Amino acid sequence: MTESSTSTSTDGATGHVLLGRVFDAVLFDMDGTLVDSTRAVNRAWMRWGAEAGLGPSFTGAEHGVPARQMVARLVPEDKIEWSIGRVLELELDDLEGIVILPGAAELMQSLPEGRRAIVTSCARSLCLARLESAGFPVPATVVTIDDTPRGKPFPEPFLAAAARLGADPRRCVVVEDAPAGLEAGRAAGCLTIGVAGTHTMDQLDADLVVPSLDRLRISIRDNGVVFELLPE
């Protein structure tokens, strides 16, 4: 955090550093931010954990972290590639119950194409499958773990998205539900909005934290976009 970017809940947002400021673009996480895929993710990872013999101590996926990073901490090196492929296969086979989160589609659709992107830790095939299953319109700019050498919490995914949009990362806002994604956004130089869901509001270290995206509106200016916070 910078001194001017103190973590703020919706209760103390008046005059906030993020609100009313003009930004070049908005970079959205997908799972837990735009769509709720938590149950499908957990089913797939628990099935893989059973197949991999991880035992009862394994409680499922860590949200917001690329699969490779999670798998590498759990299985021997000679099992990593099999595990990555198997997890992806299981996740692609289980898309049941994935839904759009409140306010997400409206917020994304309010943005011009050149000022919006999805930045996700999952594979491109899985990202597109989940968006299609939920009925979420796919923006032109989508950055996945297939596109960068390192995923969240490293800054490369958000830097790549900003570069594709021709935007200065320091004039971008990252919208995330997970600590790893918020850390990546800060490391990229972006301001951050945390959205409660997979984590509680007090677990999210962000410039602004909201209970859901339906609390936010975006207005379009000639030189960028501006966030507004709706009253409860």
| Strand order, largest beta sheet | 6-5-2-7-8-9
Order of helices and strands: EEEHHHEHEHEHEHEEEE
Strand content: 15-25%
Distance between the termini: 27 Å
Runs with pLDDT <50, length 5+? Answer: 1-15
Radius of gyration: 17 Å
The major β-sheet equals: 6 strands, parallel
Quaternary structure annotation: single chain
The total of beta strands comes to 11
Please, what is the average pLDDT?
91
Decide which structural class fits the backbone: alpha/beta
Number of helices: 7
Which of globular, elongated, flat, extended, rod-shaped describes the shape? globular
Report the helical percentage: 25-40%
Keywords: Hydrolase
Protein name: HAD family hydrolase
Organism: Cryobacterium glucosi
GO molecular function, one term: hydrolase activity
Task: Walk me through this protein's architecture.
- GO terms for molecular function: hydrolase activity.
- The chain is of the alpha/beta class and 232 residues long.
- Helices cover 30% and strands 18% of the residues.
- The chain is built from 7 helices and 11 strands.
- The chain has helices spanning 38-51, 67-72, 80-93, 104-109, 124-134, 156-165, 179-187, and strands at 22-23, 25-28, 35-36, 99-100, 116-119, 142-143, 172-176, 191-195, 208-210, 216-221, 224-229.
- The protein has a 6-stranded parallel beta sheet with strand order 6-5-2-7-8-9. It has a 3-stranded antiparallel beta sheet with strand order 1-11-10, with no helix packed on it.
- Strand 7 (172-176), helix 7 (179-187) and strand 8 form a beta-alpha-beta unit.
- Helix 1 (38-51) crosses helix 3.
- It starts with 21 loop residues before the first strand and ends with a strand.
